[in-house]
From TrEMBL:
EC number from the UniProt entry: 6.3.2.3
Residue ranges occupied by any Glutathione synthase substrate-binding domain in the UniProt entry: 226-332
Reaction(s) this enzyme catalyzes, per UniProt: gamma-L-glutamyl-L-cysteine + glycine + ATP = glutathione + ADP + phosphate + H(+)
Any one Pfam family match given in the protein's UniProt record, by short name: GSH_synth_ATP
Record-stated family: Belongs to the eukaryotic GSH synthase family.
Descriptive protein name: Glutathione synthetase
Gene Ontology MF terms: ATP binding; glutathione binding; glutathione synthase activity; magnesium ion binding
GO cellular component, as recorded: cytosol
Known cofactor(s): Mg(2+)
Positions annotated to bind substrate: 134, 159-162, 235-237, 241, 296-299, 487, 498-499
Pathway: Sulfur metabolism; glutathione biosynthesis; glutathione from L-cysteine and L-glutamate: step 2/2
Length: 511
């Protein structure tokens, strides 16, 4: 790896200053909900039977350095990315042949597709969809291009894009630490005080949910309205979700309930016109009409244990509530779609983004991604992936979300040797992005880890769109960029997921 961009950063901490910084960080975090439930390995359930304890979320002590031009580019192209993915999710005709290639080799994709087909057969009764997206990037240096520093997209998330709650909090934490002089003054004049950026993801994402809630309209039966968060249970990252809920109820006066995925069929019903009704177990006599279903669960095959769970997902999809996201929007987030879009000289991008300069800006963020099928590009990728020397520049990804599913670098050839060739096309092969080296200190599970780190920038996007007839053009009603997330991991780890146990939440110090 290259030399750190600023070898002096972060500045050294004396023992006393480290203590001051850490005490303030720990207390501020709990006082402001920059927190998670502890892992069962740390607090056995018999010691915490009510699941009542909370601990500081994994965070960096300092904001990490991030090139300003890259940060601004990510923010400014987000509304175009929103447009792109809302158009893809509305274009069944385009999606169908791509998804069909995965059906026999990926049963999760197949089951999701079946949900869509079942609803399409009777007809969708809600033409609005909400996307709370997150486009993830790493900084990429290419001395042969101008400018030499740019962003490359890691992936585009269309379901359960997390950490919008905690990202607002961690940037506020770092600003607080700076304001109380917890950081030593930087020797480098290129890193002046005040270079940190606050992320407004909490208010901006909550306003997206509120916009969907409003767009749903009134209840024909004058029932009270609500938004449902479909959640995993237990959920360690609950406070991240709660921040959005509290914002929605305090600033927008919207009722929100958390419904564990497993409780869908017991606690909700469809009325004759497929209006979704929710009966809270604590208040079973009140029938709430659900305007918007926000999925923070349902993205991983482990959550579906048989027919009943698939019936629950179908039940939601058939309903008249606005889905965030719809099944087709979830499928649009498949890594396979990202690979198809990234195919050089493909006509796909211009189908969705006819404005050439918009399409070019998006295209610039694509890293090389190859199919693993029997096409010419696929055969080339198979060769690269099967040789341990060439494979060391790549990551192999299945169509999964939530971290911990990829195969990295030299592990790829062996994985392929143990996988039937007929299943190889369920993956895509992506060139590893190698961001510039830098250092930071991560505080996780009560321990400090100091060393080289890799940062991943996520830009949130809100999009509400209307798709009145299948195959018809979608009409965008709301579209905005919704703040950022910086996640930082040790440079020895390939994965970066905070919830999956590999990284920390961070904020940007623009340079
Ligand atoms: P998931 O949907 O499970 O989050 P990702 O595509 O984001 O899958 O991959 C998980 C992690 O793997 C990323 O957060 C990042 O740290 C690493 N990663 C994925 N693709 C690349 C890449 N092309 N270059 C470098 N790191 C990558
Ligand atoms: Mg990811
Ligand atoms: Mg993802």
């Amino acid at each position: 790896m290259a030399q750190p961009i600023y070898p002096e950063y972060p500045p050294e901490l004396s023992q006393a200053r480290r203590q001051y910084l850490l005490t303030n960080l720990k207390d501020w975090s709990i006082a402001h909900g920059l927190a998670v439930r502890p892992a069962p390995a740390f607090v056995p359930s018999e010691q915490d039977p009510e699941f009542a304890l909370a601990t500081t979320a994994p965070v960096t002590l300092f904001p990490s350095l991030f090139p300003k031009s890259c940060f601004e580019e990510g923010l400014s192209i987000q509304t175009t990315y929103n447009k792109l993915y809302s158009a893809i999710a509305s274009d069944e005709e385009w999606l169908k042949p791509i998804i069909e290639e995965l059906l026999d080799i990926d049963s999760f994709v197949e089951d999701l597709w079946k949900v869509h087909l079942a609803v399409a057969k009777d007809g969708y009764v809600q033409d609005l969809t909400l996307g709370l997206f997150r486009s993830d990037y790493m900084v990429h240096i290419d001395s042969s291009s101008s400018p030499a520093v740019g962003i490359k997209q890691v992936e585009f998330n269309t379901i359960a894009s997390s950490f919008g709650g905690l990202s607002s909090k961690v940037s506020a934490l770092h600003q607080h630490l700076e304001s109380i002089d917890a950081y030593p003054s930087h020797k480098d004049p290129l890193i002046p005080k005040g270079s940190g950026v606050q992320s407004s993801s909490v208010p901006l994402l909550a306003t997206g949910l509120a916009a969907a809630h409003m767009a749903y309209g009134n209840s024909k039966e004058s029932r009270p309205l609500c938004v449902l968060f479909i959640v995993q249970d237990p959920e360690r990252n609950v406070f991240d979700q709660r921040h959005l809920e509290y914002e929605l109820s305090s600033s927008h006066k919207v009722r929100v309930f958390r419904l564990p995925f497993r409780q869908i069929l017991t606690d909700t019903k469809l009325d004759t016109d497929r209006t979704l009704l929710y009966h809270a177990p604590h208040d079973p006599d009140t029938s709430f009409e659900v305007t918007t279903v926000y999925f923070r669960a349902g993205y991983s095959p482990d959550e579906y244990n048989g027919e009943e769970d698939w019936s629950a997902r179908l039940h939601m999809e058939r309903s008249r509530a606005i889905k965030c996201p719809s099944v087709l929007t979830q499928l649009a987030g498949c890594k396979k779609i990202q690979q198809v879009l990234a195919t050089p000289l493909s006509p796909h991008l211009t189908r969705f983004l006819p404005n050439r300069s918009e399409a070019e800006r998006i295209e610039k963020t694509f890293a090389p991604i190859y199919p693993m099928d029997l096409s010419e590009a696929g055969r080339e990728a198979r060769k690269l992936a099967s040789d341990s020397e060439s494979a060391s520049h790549y990551v192999l990804k299945p169509q999964r979300e939530g971290g911990g599913n990829n195969i990295y670098r030299k592990a790829i050839p062996e994985f392929l040797r143990n996988t039937p060739e007929s299943h190889w096309p369920a993956h895509i092969l992506m060139e590893m992005i190698e961001p510039p080296a830098q250092k930071n200190i991560i505080f996780r599970n009560g321990e400090l880890q100091k060393g080289g780190v890799i940062c991943e920038l996520g830009i949130y996007g809100v999009c509400l769109w209307k798709n009145s007839k299948p195959g018809g053009k979608s009409e965008i009603l709301e579209n905005w960029e919704a703040g950022y997330l910086l996640r930082t991991k040790g440079d020895q780890s390939e994965e970066g997921g905070v919830a999956a146990g590999f990284g920390a939440v961070d904020s940007c110090y623009l340079i």
